[in-house]
Known about the structure:
Chain A has 509 residues and is α+β, with helices and mostly antiparallel strands. Chain A has helices at residues 6-16, 45-48, 91-94, 234-243, 265-270, 325-329, 359-363, 386-391, 397-404, 452-460, 484-497; strands at residues 51-60, 71-83, 86-89, 97-103, 110-119, 124-129, 152-157, 166-180, 186-193, 205-208, 211-219, 229-233, 257-260, 280-285, 300-304, 307-308, 314-317, 320-323, 336-343, 346-353, 373-376, 379-383, 419-424, 439-444, 447-448, 468-473, 480-483, 504-505.
Amino acid sequence: MKKSLVPALVxxxxxxxxxxxxxxxxxxxxxxxxxxxSQTTSVKPELWKSIVRIEASFLFPDYRTPWLSGxxxxxxxxxxxxxxxxxxxxxxxxSNSTKLVIRLMDDTQPYEAHVKFIAHDCDLAIIEAENPKPxxxxxxxxxxxxxxxxxxxxxxxxxxxxxxxxxxxxxVSRIDFQSYSHSGIDQHLAIQVDAAINPGNSGGPVxxxxxxxxxxxxxxxGAQAQNVGYIxxxxxxxxxxxxxxxxxxxxxxxxxxGDFPIENPAQLKALSMEDNGIGxxxxxxxxxxxxxxxxxxxxxxxxxxxxxxxxxxFIKYHGxxxxxxxxxxxxxxxxxxxxxxxxxxxxESVEITLxxxxxxxxxxxxxxxRPRYILYAGLLFQPxxxxxxxxxxxxxxxxxxxFDNYLAKELYKERPEVVVLTAILPDEVNSYLQGFxxxxxxxxxxxxxxxxxDVAEALKKKEGDGKFVVIKLLxxxxxxxxxxxxxxxxxxxxxxxxxxxxxxxxxxx
Amino acid sequence: MKNLLxxxxxxxLLTGALFAxxxxxxxxxxxxxxxxxxxxxxxxxxxxxxxxWQKTSPSSRRGLGVLxxxxxxxxxxxxxxxxxxxxxxxxxxxxxxxxxxxxxxxxANLALLEPTETPGEFFTGLKPMTIDENxxxxxxLQAWQLDRVGELIRxxxxxxxxxxSRYFLETSMFLVYxxxxxxxxxANSFTLPVIKGxxxxxxxxxYDSKNQTxxxxxxxxxxxxxxxxxxxxxxxxxxxxxxxxxTLDEQFKEYLGMTKDQQGVYVSAVSxxxxxxxxxxxxxxxxxxxxxxxxxxxGDYKDAQFGRLNVHTDEYEKQxxxxxxxxxAALPTxxxxxxxxxxxxxxxxxxxxxxxxxxxxxxxxKESQNGINKIEFEEAPKIIYLDAITAERDNxxxxxxxxxxxxxxxxx
Lengths: 509, 412
């Protein structure tokens, strides 16, 4: 589940330790053969065959030139048979892919495949081979549970360092909530292991006693940490598999609530709490989120679905202290979660019906999506999201402020989509307009802009005598004005000169 | 000075190379005039923004001051910023006299010093300088410096441009001479006087040795400052209180209803309470002339003395923007348990009272309810509580404690 206080969380973790960005990492194992002495390695030989190499070709969209196809690239990861002709792997192995090929351990034949389900929020995907035949006799791997701390596991996959299958071994180092770097905004339970996890291992199974206890998915990059690899644990995998049983993936749900620990005696007194270490302070409630009408800032959450919530927002889960969001994690759209809360000193029980909180997506990485845009007389309009901010290296203080506070200050209410004038393709018609680059579009021809589509419609609208196209940009002190006659005439030339085939892409629907 | 009696009427023709060889040269005229220069030694200590009850470690700056009439010494404001002790020093004899700031304008980067006590004989033999206001492009000026024993070093520079630019603060724009020439760096780094024909033509603001370009704070600005100080009520430089945009863009011009050859600039913002607002200037107006000078589409006008100059405008102050008080840090005490990581949070209310400045905060803290202070922020965690009695006890412990807290507040 996503935490609603993304900036605060980042700050907190930064204070706890210097976090460098976690790269998508795959477990690598240079040992070709594993001595059969350890029980963790007692994998039935036929199971090895069900662990496959996935080769992918990608097109990474370029948000700077959204009318182009994007940048081609290729890579590989690992997958394994989880159901009939269903190979599970990481979402990041197959995201933005244009072609997928499955290769078996002892078979030189490439088998074409396609993505059946993809879950960017928990970095998991199911791919299917076009022709199920070659895999009919392969055995499916079986899911186990959460392994104990300090027990041995092996990671199997096709990491860099060679062509054939590799195995690395380590122990379970830690069980905790972690950021999943694929989306950049999600946090789920993850298990840290000290088995080497290297690029190419992604999607590969991590086994204990021949059963799957996780999927290798990311490592810890940076000079400070050593032997830190993360695996997606069974509860997260199982949730994904349950979610897609109805034929579609419905995503993680969110209560969209921020919490703040209660450690200070003054807090206890002010909130009329017992001094028993139970209860966490509600410091933020997204009004458009699932708890928007139920919780209030200043409430204290005492329990979630009957489990005590400690003063730091944690609960006991399988004997481990984990974030209370773990309860929400296991649920699906429309499910309910019961909270006991303390409001103004009185105990109350409330129920929250879970739903997704869509404004979050703006903050996350975008995949498998053609960038949307409108080009008019050389002015390029695009909706703000993380990929856009990164691609255009936008440093404008106002745009950065809106991006950073889009959730915290609920700016999504006024502008569900923040439309940015990202670039101006130079031409005679717009030669005095370069200074307006990287600004937020507030109004076009008198129409308030709430989505990119509004721009498309408003550009056609004629205000007054219709001689001018008038664009008001947020906090810019003069309107951007184009003489419609000139702009309409220049538009086709600009498209031709800059080799833009389509002047807009507004989405599929 | 006595050893500098070699007369050189061709001084201005001396090359930079000769100059670099430290060939001292002075006219008798120069010898007298140079007696208007005083070394100014400043010890400064700024407040530490992170630990606001403490000052940063002291440092010192040296500059050259110019003696004006009534025993007043002119320096740049930059030289005396955060000064805690100022001392005047006679270059040759080394005699010293403590001084204080009589007037300062940080926007205009000018300050006037006067002796702290009766100067006695200190100024005897020194000759005050007057201000030159008539420099123009092409004029030859001299940047004056004193070497270790008080000998005059003169570097010729030529004004090649006069423009409007910022001084050291980012606030307003002022007139600046840009002059070319080689200026050797001696011991004094701040405030070199720039002389024209024996009069003070300006103060050196900065020197770019790569391009051999000096920026000079000019005489007319100094004169304006002195005039303002002299009447005993310093008001500072006026400003128009508008922000404008150019009208070079023909399409924009047509949209505004201007004819093709019409000049002028578009008023894009008017400061609340500013000069322009008081006479009814509005956003969307076109400024055509300023004091009879025609303003072109770039906002430039032609000045009889200085040539083409940009109409001076200020940063537009956004309307209704309020002062904010932030929680910058929480010192680890018993009453702040759990809040140690908070910082950079804008306060909205304390004990139900809105907080717009520190005075509000001080008052609000006196109104705790049931012994609890409730502090509310614009951002998460939105609300924290402080036990008023524990906090008071912690305050007492902090005074004189390890953080060397001398006082709990400074509200000015």
